[in-house]
Amino acid sequence: MITYDVCIVGGGVVGCAIARELLRRPWDRPLRIVVFEQHDRVGAETSSRNSGVLHSGIHEHPCSLKGQLAREGSAMAVSYAVAKGIPLLRTGMVIAISWEDVRRGLWREFSMLRRLWVNAWRTNIRLSFVTPSGLHAWEPNLHACCGIIIPSVAVIDSLAFVQSLQTDSEATGAEFAFKNRVIGIDEDATDYIVTTDRQRVRAACVINAAGLHADDVAAFALDNKKYTISPLRGEYYELVTPVKQGLIRRLVYPALPPHATGKGIHFSPRPNGQLFIGPNEVPVEDKTDYLSHKTPPGLFVDALQKFLPTLDERDLRWAYSGIRPRLVASDGQKSDFIVSVDREAPPLINLIGIESPGLSASLALARYVAELPCIQKRFSQSGAWPPSRHA
Ligand SMILES: Cc1cc2nc3c(=O)[nH]c(=O)nc-3n(C[C@H](O)[C@H](O)[C@H](O)COP(=O)(O)OP(=O)(O)OC[C@H]3O[C@@H](n4cnc5c(N)ncnc54)[C@H](O)[C@@H]3O)c2cc1C
């Protein structure tokens, strides 16, 4: 049986970022790392089925892991994309209130902008409030009464990002085992025995970055179902009418009332020039149900026509969907990211509920995992690692 120092379950953006981060650190000896991925390539699930936005963290509670890691991770991802030549669209984000919202009585949407402004103030996110004329200068075809603009937000080619992290990890020694679905994790005195549908390996540490399936993978190791992921699909339509494709060039999000769970259906431009609209929120039973009962385009038009009155169902073509690995907290609210050291020695780290802004957070999340005391203790003799702040 082959022995590894670290076995990472999942070749999404998080698993690849962790492999890269662990291998670029000067441990006492070079680490031997395997990444098990059930598909035949990296980023085949949620990591390539998203909006690609490198979020500022403004939508998250300032003290949450989601907020903190999105802020740090997005800055790291922008530098990384520039260094590696990964397609990046520096669009900025506008969160807008439409004239229609105003007619309907907008106090709830205004309270959202106020909450976001407080979040930004507490976390040093640069933004500006804009009036109709300011919005017109920023995005000439947008019909809106006012909003906030966060200039730092960018959109990355998410698949190219994951592939680049894989390339970096492999160049420094990581082994990727594709078409290997992990089906069992057993503990012995010092290690784990990880069983896939093709092989068994021994590993001194297991990091579960299995996205939508992280609750099931955690249950293999813990022998009970400690976590439950509720899959929530988000669908996208592409705006295909040539004369309308160029009407909106930046990220435009709606201001939503405080009880809203997501960030809302938005205009989602991509580095290659495509413009999508989405995502909505559809609870699904099956974690692979990307296609059944597609939501008709009318719902998407209803959500965004207030910002672009000429938008019509005939402009839209169903494009793709992604599924959020949502974890519902005990109080029924949206949960924070969970990075749980479920065993100290040998280390078992479960990453659960890594939904949006997980793409943005990935590089900072990887650093957070590498700096966990159980990892330091296991792979660094001194056990005292000065927390680094390299990008
Ligand atoms: C609609 C939508 C829009 C989003 N938009 C954004 C956005 O704009 N910005 C942002 O920051 N985030 C966004 N996100 C969130 C972001 O995409 C995720 O947080 C991120 O991709 C999670 O990465 P991951 O590596 O944890 O999971 P995944 O990409 O799901 O990777 C997990 C991997 O584990 C593998 N796996 C699972 N079980 C096993 C097993 N038993 N054995 C072997 N392999 C296994 C899977 O095949 C998969 O490849 C969005 C998500 C959705 C659904």
Protein described:
The chain contains eleven helices and 20 strands. The model is unreliable at 383-391 (pLDDT under 50). The longest helix is centred in the N-terminal third of the chain and has 20 residues, at 65-84. The chain has helices at residues 13-23, 65-84, 99-103, 107-123, 132-138, 158-171, 214-222, 242-245, 298-304, 358-370, 373-379; strands at 2-9, 33-36, 53-54, 88-89, 93-97, 128-130, 146-150, 154-156, 175-177, 182-187, 192-196, 200-208, 229-239, 251-254, 266-269, 275-278, 282-283, 316-327, 338-343, 348-352. The chain is of the alpha+beta class and 391 residues long. Helix 1 (13-23) packs parallel to helix 10 (358-370). The strands form four sheets. Strands 1, 2, 9, 10, 11, 12, 19 and 20 form an eight-stranded mixed sheet that branches. Strands 13, 15, 16, 17 and 18 form a five-stranded antiparallel sheet that branches. A hairpin with a 5-residue loop joins strand 15 (266-269) and strand 16. It folds into two domains: 2-48 and 158-228 and 335-379, FAD/NAD(P)-binding domain; 90-153 and 230-324, 2-Layer Sandwich (D-Amino Acid Oxidase, Chain A, domain 2). Flavin-adenine dinucleotide binds at residues 9-15, 36-39, 44-47, 49-53, 55, 181-182, 209-213, 217, 234, 279, 322-324, 354-360.
Give the arrangement of secondary structure elements:
Layout: E1 2-9, H1 13-23, E2 33-36, E3 53-54, H2 65-84, E4 88-89, E5 93-97, H3 99-103, H4 107-123, E6 128-130, H5 132-138, E7 146-150, E8 154-156, H6 158-171, E9 175-177, E10 182-187, E11 192-196, E12 200-208, H7 214-222, E13 229-239, H8 242-245, E14 251-254, E15 266-269, E16 275-278, E17 282-283, H9 298-304, E18 316-327, E19 338-343, E20 348-352, H10 358-370, H11 373-379
Parallel strand pairs: 1-2, 1-12, 2-9, 5-14, 12-20
Antiparallel strand pairs: 3-8, 4-8, 5-7, 6-7, 10-11, 11-12, 13-16, 13-17, 13-18, 15-16, 19-20
Helix pairs in contact: 1-6, 1-10, 2-10
